[in-house]
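sorry to bug you again but im stuck and you know this stuff better than me. below you get a single protein, a line of residues and a line of whole numbers that encode the local backbone shape. mainly i need to know what kind of three dimensional shape the backbone takes. anything you notice is useful, everything is just below:

***
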Amino acid sequence: MHIIAHMETYNTDDIIFALATGWNQSAIAVIRVSGPECLKHVAECFSRPKSLMNAKNATMVHGYLVSENKNKIDEVVCAVNTEGHGYTKQEAVEISCHGSLAVIKAILEELAKHGMRQAKGGEFTLRAFLNGALDLTQAEAVHELVTSQSQMERALALGRLEGSLHDRIEELKQQLLKVMTVIEIQLDYAEDEIDDFDFPSSDLEEVITGIKNLEGTYETGRLYGQGIKVVLAGSTNAGKSSLFNLLLKQKRAIVSEIQGTTRDYIEASTQIMGVPLRLFDTAGLRKSNDSIENAGIEKTKELIDMADVILYLVDGAEEESVIDKSIHDNEKTILVYTKRDLREREGLSISTITGEGITELFEAIINKTSASLLISDDSKVIVESERQHGLLLEALASLNEAEALQKQDIGLDIVAVELNSALTSLGGLTGEITQDDVLDKIFGDFCVGK
């Protein structure tokens, strides 16, 4: 859903409202309202309008939401933020009401009658960004925190929301500006008789190293944010669906002795040892005359290519196991013998019936990605966003080019262009320089009410 068509036409004076809690029955629900003079509009359908209008910042007012004919809709508590405060830095009110779906619907309908409109996904956070309450890294962290799947991802996202990534980027920008200042002075006074110019090579190298280290955290952020992509592959009846169900602790995949039961992949999320996983149960690998099954097998091969970890399941009960060398030799592959309750094999052997070997399997999955999951004690600043990663790579490419040009004794004015390009990329990270379509992409993924 597009929030904005063009920034120059987006109206921040609109009063917007949305349900901030889930659209389901609950004890309490929260409806968020934001925009200039929104208190005046909400007061029109509030039982104590003067108390609400005169409320100070960060105070709460008890009363009733009422209809046009003054019939009570629900007993509520309104939390007030005056202009310059709160999440959006606009005048705002959060209405805590009973979580009946009928109550929520009636309140939303009533608000719409009083000059307010339904907010779009991410619009509250967009306004927080436009009003300087958040930069883009913090705005993205809001979404990352809401969608976090593990305690580690929650902690990392919270750190970004509190400004850890913003602060690190600002440090890098200041270091780069220091280099650029030295070069600009030389360019401005090149014709004057000044001391021999020494290019700030060590300072530039320090910036390059800092950006490289930050960019290198993306793989860690991706794994914690999106989950380790674990693909269960193997021949038909190797036990893929049984293991899939066991890992999920629910029967999601059909288990049958009939070969070719799984014709398309099934995806689901879970956690092991505090790390999120994206599990893919796939069609069994075999030769088939069934076009639908063959399509599923082709999809299995595609999933194997994009996996972080491949669990190559082999039927351990068979006397002689046929092993696909191309999968077995893949560096991402863990060879797993199944049906350990029928026959134990050398290597990693499991039973989905008795649970034997499952702990060892968990450890093998984590060990396969352990280097990517490590977070150093001296830095908890981790990049998760693909957008941020792309801009860091752009900045790094510009700086490497500037360094190469300087070593080739190319003119400083050309070097300065590359340095300025890198600064622009860093500015794009925090939102100092941002195109409308980028804002739409970022905030369009948010839920309504955020």
Notes: The two ends are 14 Å apart (CA to CA). The longest helix spans residues 164-188. Residues 252-263 have pLDDT under 50 and may be disordered.
